[in-house]
């Protein structure tokens, strides 16, 4: 029964009793093209292709906008300057002050790179946000984690850096046995974890949402329904509603992608700013 | 009555209540603060987004736990 349903294409108002199959998380585990057979690896999958495309796009963006910088910016250059000014005024100056200006190149690059990786979920043909695989945000978060620890240790020394992160100022001595473990776990374990997982989970959920809308729209489109032309027309109406929802959520998802790239960069610069500041 | 499905989904719903209230408070208070002092907008927006990101972490932990508990 079920195999027959799948052969004929399962749509609403059918006469062989098949139901809607929602897309599952298998979406995010594409079949590997090359397998290495090592435990814990997924081989070379579609993710690597999309990652390479995203890297080339973000590199090409900077190449074509800044290859010939002028004092009076051209149109392309002013777009790049817009991003740099945005990151400087909204992110680094607010979290690190003037001393954070040397991190602007890193933060702008991270912003553009993460945003490009997210947008790959909306490009027809690719349609897989790179950041919906935990491995990619995890590497970026690990890099930021090592960076802020290195910045803090170089500025204040090992002891002062870890003391500043674990012992909050103004806490009475008898509370320290409780506060220090909480601070240590939240700053050195939970913080890098949530930094990576936030980006991953939002892109994962958003992409799954779009996939459900697309699959539901396809499922509900059945103008040749065996139950008559009236229900066939109703199915086209349902499908149109699903398509409208899909388009609305695509625009919303584009906004979420930009916000998540912004949040990732903002948190990165907050962490580096705290490490530079040392003890309060 | 028989109910099937994953209990972890309900857990995620419960985990989203607190962050939902928190995010609402953060943005509500943030908009109020901007309305009272529009010139402090840049700094307030940064603090709003930072607070939002910290609060949202709880909901995200719930989401991840719901997915790995299948």
TrEMBL record, chain A:
Molecular function terms from GO: proton-transporting ATP synthase activity, rotational mechanism
Transmembrane segment boundaries: 47-65, 103-123, 135-153, 174-193, 199-221, 228-248, 254-273
A single cellular component GO annotation: proton-transporting ATP synthase complex
CDD domains (alphabetical): ATP-synt_Fo_a_6
Annotated membrane topology: Multi-pass membrane protein
Entry's localization field: Cell membrane; Membrane
Sorted UniProt keywords: ATP synthesis, Cell membrane, CF(0), Hydrogen ion transport, Ion transport, Membrane, Transmembrane, Transmembrane helix, Transport
Major localization class: membrane
InterPro entries: ATP_synth_F0_asu, ATP_synth_F0_asu_bact/mt, F0_ATP_A_sf
PANTHER family on file: ATP SYNTHASE SUBUNIT A
Protein task: Key component of the proton channel; it plays a direct role in the translocation of protons across the membrane.
Family statement drawn from the similarity comment of this UniProt entry: Belongs to the ATPase A chain family.
Protein's UniProt name: ATP synthase subunit a
Gene: atpB
Automatic annotation (TrEMBL), chain B:
Pfam family, one: ATP-synt_C
Cellular component, GO, one term: proton-transporting two-sector ATPase complex, proton-transporting domain
InterPro entries named among the record's database cross-references: ATP_synth_csu_bac/chlpt, ATP_synth_F0_csu, ATP_synth_F0_csu_DDCD_BS, ATP_synth_F0_csu_sf, ATPase_proteolipid_c-like_dom, F/V-ATP_Csub_sf
Compartment(s) where it occurs, according to its Swiss-Prot or TrEMBL record: Cell membrane
Coiled-coil annotated spans: none
Site for Reversibly protonated during proton transport, residues: 56
Superkingdom, taxonomy of origin: Bacteria
Protein name: ATP synthase subunit c
């Amino acid at each position: 029964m079920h195999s027959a349903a799948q052969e004929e294409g399962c749509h609403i108002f059918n006469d062989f009793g098949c139901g809607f199959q929602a897309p599952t998380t298998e979406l995010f585990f594409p079949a590997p093209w090359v397998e290495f057979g090592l435990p814990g690896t997924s081989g070379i999958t579609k993710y690597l292709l999309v990652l390479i495309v995203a890297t080339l796009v973000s590199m090409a963006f900077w190449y074509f906008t800044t290859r010939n910088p002028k004092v009076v910016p051209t149109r392309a250059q002013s777009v790049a300057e817009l991003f740099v000014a945005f990151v400087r005024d909204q992110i680094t100056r607010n979290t690190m002050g003037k001393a954070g200006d040397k991190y602007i190149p890193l933060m702008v690059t991270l912003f553009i790179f993460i945003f490009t990786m997210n947008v790959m979920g909306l490009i027809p043909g690719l349609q897989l946000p790179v950041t919906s695989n935990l491995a990619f945000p995890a590497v970026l978060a690990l890099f930021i984690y090592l960076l802020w620890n290195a910045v803090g240790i170089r500025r204040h020394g090992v002891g002062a850096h870890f003391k500043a992160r674990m012992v909050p100022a103004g806490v009475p001595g008898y509370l320290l046995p409780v506060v220090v473990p909480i601070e240590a776990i939240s700053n050195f374990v939970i913080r890098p974890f949530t930094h990576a997982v936030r980006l991953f989970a939002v892109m994962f959920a958003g992409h799954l949402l779009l996939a459900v809308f697309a699959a539901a729209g396809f499922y509900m489109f059945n103008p040749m329904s065996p139950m008559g032309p009236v229900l066939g027309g109703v199915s086209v109406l349902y499908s149109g509603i699903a398509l409208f929802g899909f388009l609305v959520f695509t625009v919303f998802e584009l906004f979420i992608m930009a916000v998540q790239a912004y949040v990732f960069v903002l948190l990165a610069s907050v962490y580096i700013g705290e490490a530079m500041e040392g003890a309060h | 009555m028989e109910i099937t499905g994953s209990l972890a989904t309900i857990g995620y719903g419960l985990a989203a209540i607190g962050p939902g209230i928190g995010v609402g408070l953060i943005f509500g208070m943030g908009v109020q603060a901007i309305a009272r002092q529009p010139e402090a907008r840049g700094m307030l927006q940064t603090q709003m987004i930072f607070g939002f990101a910290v609060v949202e972490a709880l909901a995200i932990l719930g989401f991840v736990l719901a997915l790995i508990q299948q």
